[in-house]
Amino acid sequence: MHSLITCALPSHASRCANAFNAGRLTCYLVLFVWVASPDVTSGQPSLSSPNVLILIADDLGIGDVGCFGNTTIRTPAIDRLCREGVALTHHLAAAALCTPSRAALMTARYPQRYGMVGAASGGPPVLVHVASRAGLPSSEPTIGKAFAAAGYRTHFTGKWHLGSGCGFLGRSCQGPLAHGFNSTFYLPNTLFERANVEGSFWVWPEEDFHYHALVGTSAAVLAVAVLLKRLKFNVAAAVVVTSLLVAAPAAWFLLTHYRFHTPRWYQVSEWMDFNLNFVVMRQTSVLHQRAPLESLSMDMVRATVDFMRAEAASGRSFLAVHAFSHPHTPLVCAPHNRGRSRHGRYGDAVEELDEGVGLLLAALDDMALYNNTIVYFTSDHGGHLEALGADGQRTGGYNGLFKGGKFQGGMEGGIRVPGVLRYPGVVRDGSKLSSPTSLLDVLPTLLELSGLPSVRELLPDAAQPLDGLSLSSLLTGAGGATEDPTRGRLLLHHSGMFVDAIRYNTGEHVYVASNDVHVSRRARVRRK
Ligand SMILES: *[C@@H]1O[C@H](CO)[C@@H](O)[C@H](O)[C@H]1NC(C)=O
Ligand SMILES: *[C@@H]1O[C@H](CO)[C@@H](O)[C@H](O)[C@H]1NC(C)=O
Ligand SMILES: *[C@@H]1O[C@H](CO)[C@@H](O)[C@H](O)[C@H]1NC(C)=O
């Protein structure tokens, strides 16, 4: 099934890869201030190495979470994490879009380094098909590979969206299994509104001139056949008519279900999306051809809990990444979560997401893993401010004080995300960390907190260098404020391939220089 889709859908692989090669990039890549993650002294993975649970929300705004200031939405489980861990109040996604942001979280490297940002020529900035051949290059270090190399058992649940296509005849498939995860229950792509729109196979849009051209051409070919018949070229006439019978329906199918003739050449029809793009995979098999939207949140929780239970029973340390499909559209919840929140379908989806977080935390309590598990929670980027449902209801999140949102480059609302990290007894509970931290920092931080060797030691063959750094000393309180590792760091914020904002932490102040194109074209410096 999977390889069949590979052949049937277009890809933008080469365009994506070309993005990195564009000469323009190199001029700002030299600006990178690369701060090496400090070497970890402790070496060997031991039985006492903590488990790690990473929770990633999809499109959740920082203003949608109780412990980040929302008073009308109920997120008791995330609030519990804030009480028991450190809230990262200046936490930043590496992009205001899911594919590049998730790539940065997985690798601790800017996605611009390896082409996971779309093409300047107008290619999609996120992967749009299950079978897109573009994907996270195998040379990249990932969270999965690093923990697997340290002897952990690793699992991925939920939205992957970093490439899942296969090569010719289903060879060298991408996806979480190719990036260090031992088991999976995952959506190769992303959900969006069309996951809930059946779409029609028989479509004839009369306003589209391509269809008139198709009729005209068919009529002309038919006329030629009639002429040939009159001239007694019977065999030739039969060949022409037979070709028409094959070519005309094929042309109609291509016009209707592919978008090659539009500026959005990389898209397909609603019908194709609905039937091919929202699959749920377990390992290498398609488990559901169409994601079961109502039960999906609970199915995903069950998959992660089953994995954690099996590993806890065997006494091995585990890494579980749980990437929620909520609160991204189409916002379909289980019946018991519908109409419960004060914020429509969007609020319901946030509350169902929180229910999932609660169940995962309860499972850890139940297995007596509370003390021995690091839990990290974040969102891939800010809420989508303009999202509106067909019924006029708002279907995107709220970014609190911050201007802008999803799709909006270096604007603060697009990249400022909630972040919480809990490690009982090690990380200070109920505290806040206001240094500018990034999703790029997650991998080195988790390794150091777990007492494991650095990425470079674990994965000597992986691409270099890392853009994230370990926040371990900040989180545990080891070392005073003078040792803030984010001090002196220059963080870049991109729109696609281009830098839209930079941020610099002097230790006393954090400066942001932003090319705020959505408001004015003047570069501005604002002091936080
Ligand atoms: C809470 O979140 C909802 C949903 O995004 C939003 O509409 C509302 O304004 C937020 N309320 C507060 C007080 O932040
Ligand atoms: C888990 O995956 C890693 C990386 O792919 C692999 O090296 C390791 O052998 C796997 N472990 C098990 C128990 O399957
Ligand atoms: C976690 O560890 C602390 C300190 O050792 C202990 O007091 C507490 O009971 C433990 N909690 C659980 C749930 O095991």
UniProtKB/TrEMBL annotation:
Gene Ontology MF term list: arylsulfatase activity
Transmembrane segments: 209-228, 235-255
Protein name, per record: Arylsulfatase F isoform X2
PANTHER family for the chain: ARYLSULFATASE FAMILY MEMBER, SULFATASE N-TERMINAL DOMAIN-CONTAINING PROTEIN
Signal peptide: 1-43
Family note: Belongs to the sulfatase family.
Keyword Signal annotated: yes
Species whose genome carries this gene: Hyalella azteca
GN (gene name): LOC108682441
Ranges of residues in domain Sulfatase N-terminal: 50-451
